[in-house]
Amino acid sequence: MPWSWRYEGANGDPVNGPAEAFSSQADAESWIGQTWRELAAGGVASVLLVEDDRVEYRMSLLPAAE
């Protein structure tokens, strides 16, 4: 089952991002760990890890509020 990321802007609407596909959850998570800063700088506020059409989880790329 392929894993991929979906990207959302600050308002929760979908935004464009790299169309990468991964053979495992670990590969997808490793990739996001290396690229999240560039995605955030490009306007991505959160990402959703997806296996086929099932959302595994959502994760913010914004700094934690203090």
Structure summarized in a few sentences:
With 66 residues, this protein is α+β, with helices and mostly antiparallel strands. Helix content is 26%, strand content 29%. A three-stranded antiparallel sheet has the order 1-2-3, with helices on one face.
Rounded to an integer in angstroms, the radius of gyration calculated over CA atoms is 11 Å
Strand/helix succession: EHEE
Cα distance spanning the termini:
38 Å
The secondary structure category is alpha+beta
Helical fraction: 25-40%
pLDDT under 50 segments (min length 5)?
none
Portion of residues in beta strands equals 25-35%
Overall morphology: globular
Give a written overview of the molecule.
It contains one helix and three strands, in the order E-H-E-E. The chain has one helix at 25-41, and strands spanning 3-8, 46-51, 54-60. Strands 1-2-3 form a three-stranded antiparallel sheet, with helices on one face. Strand 2 (46-51) and strand 3 (54-60) form a beta hairpin. It starts with a strand and ends in a 6-residue tail after the last strand. 8% of the residues are buried.
